Amino acid sequence: MDPLLEKATRQHTKEHNSRLLLRTIYEYGAISRADLARLTQLTRATVSDAVGELLERGLLEEVGHGTVGIGRTPILLSVVADARQVAAISVTNERVVGALVNLRGELRASVTLDVPLCDGDAILETIYAVADQLRRAAEYPLLGIGINTPGLIDVERGTVVRAVDFGWVDLPLRTLVQERCQLPVYLANDSHSLALAEYMFGQAQGTPDLIVVKVGNGIGAGIVLGDRLYTGEGNGAGEIGHLVVAEDGPLCKCGNRGCLETVASSAAILRQARELRLTQASALSAEPTLEELAHLAQAGDPLARAVIAEAGRYLGIALASLVSVLNIRRVLITGQVAPLGELLRKAVVTNLARRCLPALARATVVEVVALGPDAPLLGAAAPLLTFELGIERLSRP
Amino acid sequence: MDPLLEKATRQHTKEHNSRLLLRTIYEYGAISRADLARLTQLTRATVSDAVGELLERGLLEEVGHGTVGIGRTPILLSVVADARQVAAISVTNERVVGALVNLRGELRASVTLDVPLCDGDAILETIYAVADQLRRAAEYPLLGIGINTPGLIDVERGTVVRAVDFGWVDLPLRTLVQERCQLPVYLANDSHSLALAEYMFGQAQGTPDLIVVKVGNGIGAGIVLGDRLYTGEGNGAGEIGHLVVAEDGPLCKCGNRGCLETVASSAAILRQARELRLTQASALSAEPTLEELAHLAQAGDPLARAVIAEAGRYLGIALASLVSVLNIRRVLITGQVAPLGELLRKAVVTNLARRCLPALARATVVEVVALGPDAPLLGAAAPLLTFELGIERLSRP
Question: HTH marR-type domain: which residues (chains A, B) (predicted)?
């Protein structure tokens, strides 16, 4: 064999083993070298060498002794949660939020800057400002910067192909931030990020097949298939916000009519509430919030209930597409609509059953859940842990 | 290590290597032992032993010499196409078709038996009769029996969960045929089978991400993701036939209204043509066929064009779901509607663009293609080649 190729292969194998060991230790929390060798099927010598190097890099620590029946008690290894940090940035229509996230998904310093509504240039400047602040605040070595934004992202090229609300077309966001900050940068679509965050750190941790539908001003689905984030051939998987669900519905920014976002986004739901309020008796205020809507609906207000039922109907139509195409049995609906809770869930489930094969609908569990405010940041950080260190949650340890 | 476990592990490794070698030889057509060792990264000794055993089992043959610049010319190895046969059976509403398929997807003896329309018991008896005839006709050892049928299949349990047209509910088809024939039996959904056949033997051979939409009396999609057939958590992936695309449309057998099958199946298209014919001047006959419809439409008949455009509109709506969820860029539409060709394709593409994010639609190539009559049989045979011998097409050799 070509000696250069051989050297490259050896290096590749070494890195592969090191990542496998780190991931396994991460998953188990604390584990002995002997158990590591057994689980990874690597030799004791290979484990010992690789662990030595990971200890030297400060990624691992020895955390006291495990318990065994008789004989010597082995030393356990654990990942040092704060060994590295990620500068995680989440971009929405209203603000840019950033935080330092450690290897266990715990947030350290955080920054929030508001942005002028839908001004693409201003949003870019704000991303720079947040990145700069996080770099200054970092107490441990930074793995890099993870950014999630709405829109169609080309993960490989690191560009935002199109973010309708921001007027971004083919924006080379990764290169821009990378050149400024001299750190690895990973981009992710906001819905994809949320699914990854839920799978790695959230209540659906380790669910191998999972759909997370984010409903805010935009709507999109993140899809985990067989323990991997599924992003599609052009990173457009789960772009259901522009699936047409209302015949001759409102005109959408994308140019089509009746897209899901025009009738079931948080803005669309509140617009619908304001419009109905003009013609129908209701305790609803002139500028209602989703929380108020939820509160009134629970108290029996017919207008509030009708608005939620209508949004649920459209989301049910979109869910029928997801379920008919993917046959994934666990669906979380989250985002700004989370307060609409059980009323929304019921409307979605009723309409899902009417819009796809009943057997598929019956086999699907739909939940409406509030994700923690950290979820978008955890989703932004997750690709750095995966690609820079090889850490990803395994569903079946 | 436990000696039993060690023995089992060695046996498992040996089988794994043997399947890897067979698959590689299959993919390359003819290849030397040295190249095999290089490609699979197995030792020369391991390759030599495993190849010896495969030669003994009659699965391989030595096919003369390759060419090298200087020195000894190596002997090449090739898979014996007729070393094994599969009894492939394809079930449709009208008939049960069977054939013996060899390892290269070539058909040998074939059998066709018509069945009484939509009589589940009679269809089962006809499957038995076809299986018996194929077993008698087999000239080489049978790997087993592959059956594809419409409906929701539980591949693991080997049951037809539900086939609406046949009245089958939880039918243990695999066990029934296995007990009768004493051979391994694999079931597959008909659309899934077609996608697999296209990927393994067809014009989309080796396309790693692919959607094949079958439009006949039933409608379903088969999905290949990353070189693997994707079947979903309950084998219901691609069940778009019951996705509702027509608000308040015709009542479907599944209990819902306006399912894709009620407005775009071959039967629905012909029904629509017959109905329009009563109110509109057209050269269309009283009992039109899809071929006649295609022929008239090409000649400019407005009724025929309108019927095709309408079917294309509904298929475009369903395609928007597939594309928004999966972002797969190559879609084949096939089945009984294939003769509608370019007129159907244009209607589908126009409506796809109106019903999902325009950037996703633009990136998607839609073709309307006639698959050979053998495609369903090849799809039925494919799981046997994969699971019994480890042969599957690789997209990147």
Answer: 21-65
